Amino acid sequence: MFMYQKKLQYPVRIKNPNPALAKAIITQYGGPDGELGASLRYLSQRFSMPYPELKGLLTDIGTEELGHLEMIGAIVHQLTRNMTIEQIKDGGFADYFVDHTAGVYATAASGAPFNAACFAVKGDVIADLSEDMAAEQKARVTYDNILRLSDDPDVSDVIRFLREREIVHYQRFGEALRLASEKLDQKNIYAINPAFDR
């Protein structure tokens, strides 16, 4: 099902350490709207999708999100390699450093560790695809916020690429929601269900 290529989907080549920026970007690794949660959400939702094309879409996007997780990890690693103690202290990275040194750990920018409660799997095609569209928009906003904070063109270049992919995923999930709506019995869409409503 998966084919791993030993190269990133988009190159990450960051020259200068910046622990303060790494502390913000780590949220896209293990934060509530990050790539780890997205990949697990989509790869879990695929099992209950009623149509093969929707299973395929969730598998494709879930797999791509794993690639994005790898890119975020590479960014954080490159921003934190070769840091001086002064950079760690001045960049507000000391708390993270004490617990994880310069290892890439699944956490939010706030310091909250990754929690599986941040990804939603309902088992209902409409609910899950609607959740996926919202998740992509939340990730896009997070990338917008990172771009506002970034003063490193090497970082901003990669973040722009990842942001664009969130927009594409949002569009693909919108198409999937339309497809599902056309295939399902129209009486059962958007919480109108004859079995419950009289």
What does it look like?
Helix 3 runs antiparallel to helix 4, helix 3 packs antiparallel against helix 7 and helix 7 (125-149) packs antiparallel against helix 8 (153-183). The protein has 8 helices and no strands. The longest helix is centred in the last third of the chain and has 31 residues, at 153-183. It has one domain (19-188): Up-down Bundle (Ferritin). It is an all-alpha fold and 198 residues long.
Précis, in short:
The protein has 198 residues and is mainly alpha-helical. It is built from eight helices and no strands.
What's the helix and strand layout?
Elements: H1 19-25, H2 27-30, H3 35-45, H4 52-80, H5 85-90, H6 94-100, H7 125-149, H8 153-183
CATH topology: Ferritin
The number of helical segments is: 8
Q: How would the global form be characterised?
A: elongated
How many β-strand runs?
Answer: 0
Low-confidence stretches: none
| CATH architectural category | Up-down Bundle
Percent helix, as a range, is 55-70%
Beta-strand content estimate: under 5%
Q: Helix and strand string, N-terminal first?
A: HHHHHHHH
Secondary-structure-derived class: mainly alpha
Under the CATH scheme, which class? Mainly Alpha
Q: Give the averaged pLDDT, no decimals.
A: 92
> How many whole angstroms does the radius of gyration measure?
19 Å
At the fourth CATH level, what is the homologous superfamily? Ferritin, core subunit, four-helix bundle
Q: N-to-C terminal Cα separation, in Å?
A: 44 Å
Question: How many domains?
Answer: 1
Biggest β-sheet description: none
